[in-house]
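input
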Amino acid sequence: IYEILKSWNDRPEVTIALSELHEMLTVPKTLRADFFNFRRRVLEKAHRDISSKTSLRYQWEPKKTGRAVTAIKFWFEKTPQAKPKLQPLNVDNGPNAVAALDAELRSLGVHSKTASDYAARAEAAGRVGLILARLPGIVARADKQPNSTRLQYILGAVQNELQQQQIFDVPAGGPVDPEAEARKCRQDHEARETICVPRQTGEPDGRKRCQMCLEKIPRSISETDSEPPSRNNPGRCSR
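output
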């Protein structure tokens, strides 16, 4: 059905006899006599799959002669510009990958400054390659959202990759040691000079590495200095 519709989508609409469509699709005789099942198993399923997996947008409706369905009308929705097709990219974190992530985000409609900012943050987190690898799936899910929230969904998913996912991949030999994972996480925060929310609040948020970090890793001078003044911590010493 996709191939047939692509050959017609330069027109605003097209109506094709049901018998002709049966022939083009080589529909079994049992299904030709049962429009309800043909609609459910062929027309509706194809519409869902094509809409979710391709850039082709169309609607359809049955046309009747008397009480019998004799034709199918298709009409096409023209979009301002075709959504870019993301090409497979190498999962690495080098300069080329950073530039590629920046370019991909811009091609999806992200403002240039925002795209550069997200690419830089991904580079600092060492997650450029991972985000590039997951971006096609993110875009596929975003395409199912309303146009008004599509871009917001993409940026939210990238933000989630930067903040919520584990920073460490599980090696082939088994899971990462939680204490080693916690120390590496802390080192990454210090290198980026970013604030770690669990350490700031003292709440591990249910993550094992955060619990280990709070229990095993002493607070640094910079963290102590950054604490707001309180009765027990009146602020920095004037010396």
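quick obs: The radius of gyration is 27 Å.
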